[in-house]
Write a structure and sequence with these properties.
Blueprint: H1 7-16, H2 21-31, H3 46-54, E1 61-63, E2 69-70, E3 100-102
Length: about 100
């Protein structure tokens, strides 16, 4: 495998060949060394989950045993009822998730 070219190598190569700045920038992007702020996309981070959860069902759910209300907007980060784990229990009475119903 050939050694990875640095940003300086690519710029020097294009400058020496009379290339334009636009071509040099394209070469940098294709080589994967586009600059200091190049970040990899975040996967399964809490923030990305929160963003996808915001588009989901944000209704309140009520415990059928004690009346506790799960309000996703009040939790930090906002967590829809559907995103709670299957073994989640009511924090007030310990009832399972299956005892909850959407609040009307």
């Amino acid at each position: 495998m050939p050694p990875r070219m640095t940003r300086r190598d690519i710029l020097a190569e294009f400058a020496g060949a009379g290339g334009s700045a636009a071509l040099a920038a394209l070469a940098l992007a294709l080589a994967g060394c586009g600059g200091k702020s190049q970040e990899q996309p975040k996967r399964n981070s809490p923030d990305s989950n929160a963003a996808s959860s915001a588009a989901k069902d944000m209704r309140k759910y009520v415990c059928g045993k004690c009346g506790y209300v799960h309000d996703p907007a009040a939790s930090d980060p906002a967590r829809p009822f559907a995103d709670l784990p299957a073994d989640w229990k009511c924090p007030k009475c310990g009832s399972p998730k299956s005892r909850f119903a959407p609040k009307s």
